[in-house]
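Workshop exercise sheet. Pairs work together: one partner reads the sequence aloud, the other fills in the structure field after running the prediction. Swap roles for the next sheet.
Pair: D.N. / O.F.
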Amino acid sequence: MLRRALRLSLFLLFALAPEVQAQEVIRSFQSDIRIAADGTLDVRETITVTAEGDAIKHGIYRDFPRYFVKADGTLGKVSFDVQAVTRDGAPELFMTQAVEGGTRIQIGNADETVPPGVHTYRIDYQTDRQIRFRTDHDALVWNVTGTGWRFPIESARATVTLPNGDRVLSADTYTGAKGETGQDATAQISGNHVEFQSTRMLYVGEGLTIEASFTKGVVAAPTSAQIRAWWWRDNLGAVIAYSGLAAVFAFFFARWFARGRDPKSGIVVARWDLPKGVSPALASYIDESGLTGGAWSALSASAIDLAVKGYVTLDNLDQAVTITRASKPVPDDLPAGQAVLLETVEQHGGAFTIESANGEAVQAMSMAFRAAIKAENRGVFFQNNRGVFFIGLLASVGIALIWCFTSGLSSDSISAIALSGAVPLLLGILIWKALRARRRRIMVAARLLLTVAVILLSMIGLLAFLVAIDSFGDVMGSGAALTMVWGLVVMNQLFFILLSAPTKRGRDIRDHIAGLRLYLTLAEKDRMNLLGAPKMSPAHFETLLPYAVVLGVEKRWSKSFEIWLSASVAGAAAAYAPVWYSGTRTGNVTGDIASFASSMGSSMAASVPRSNSSGSGSSGSGGGGGAGGGW
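Structure field:
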């Protein structure tokens, strides 16, 4: 009573205030319902409104719910077929569109305005699955007006007519907001006909629900064929989602099994010999199944390798690295990537400085460097099977689009579900980066940060999944759509990685590289115990340094060399002065070189120019219902 009094007070306050324009209202809302013997409802809704150009400018809209809760607690979907729409007795332009939980009929022309005054709209439509089949009788529970109208309803009326002249057993009414059981309406039974009439104004957020009961058999119970057809209607989205997910997985798995499985790995043992014909950059290309980003690590390792072999010298001064061409002749069999680097140096007069002023040239060198290595070695050491992957990706997109067109969801809901796929996408990227960081032995702090990010995003992702299922559960039931979207994202990420497989030759070289990485990270005493291992020396250290750079272990390798120097004859450490490198001296040449080797790739990347970017029982229950307003 208190809530009703408050609504009445607010309505009178706005209606009687002299400075406020008179409120638009629904003068009468009448629904005439004829029940067919097969349970189909023929409904004629007549809505008389007072239009004043405020909310009702071009016309009105009517939202019709499409889902109901079945006896087993799952959702069922009703049909909804608009037969005709008129305004003041003349046909009126209308369009239907999906909205959350149902269908919206938007009546009117966007290029025309409704003249102020009283207008009568009529909507004729058919719908099914609205009859409730109970133990001792059947009933129609119908939300006549819905509780979502933006205008008060001065008078609401409904009639229900049974087929074949059968008599209505009983009738009930419920008024008020959703869930309320007000009795501000009357019901008058006359044979197979019953008329309902509200006895007070229904304010914004209130509605009228009616219930008409009749003997069993008046409406035929659904046949087995109907039940099967309804099951497909209710579950088509889930069938598309789960079967599509299974089909994409089957395709990816079959292609992986046939073409993407890695050859069996050999036994990895510490090795100090270099893979024959494999430059540092090529070792990175093979080990990482490609050159990612700007290939800065491979570029810096190539520069160091050229310097160690006497083709260039490296000057690390004033936070800029200068690569200078030496006089040593270049052999014809120089690796493709190193040839590009030397060509860049020679194009700049024999001295190329890595700094922001040369950023565009550094970027061009990086692009040519990567292109040269890929062109020379494509398909030799590994197969990325990108063609197969893109077929699976297109199939995934196709399935998602088919689901969108058949789901009946609003564009906002579809967009929200699609955007939720960003969570597993970001999570997959972070996990992949964390695994790569661990493999390349990136600093502990960075690995810890990635691990924390993965954990936090996993928690956020789980929460987002649960919230999304709860938000869309009234439409999607078990959350099949979210499962489909998240599953497709995860599956495509997973097989993007799995479909890339080394060839037999690539597998052998990867094992060789793994053995070299093991050797470079061994403690000095363990290295000395290896049968046939060469003794540490400046030449041995410098030869393997470029490979240590691309394998991410240059600091450990430099530390081993520093320990060896310190344990050598007096003055050996101080006397070490490589001719290929010069830079700011800290008193520890080995430490300078290690720091330079680690940071040279970052210096190259930093010099590149950055682009600029900026039932029964309460009002609102049963079939029918919905909402409406003006536009």
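Discussion prompt: Residues 537 and 561 are 8 Å apart (CA to CA). What would you look at next?
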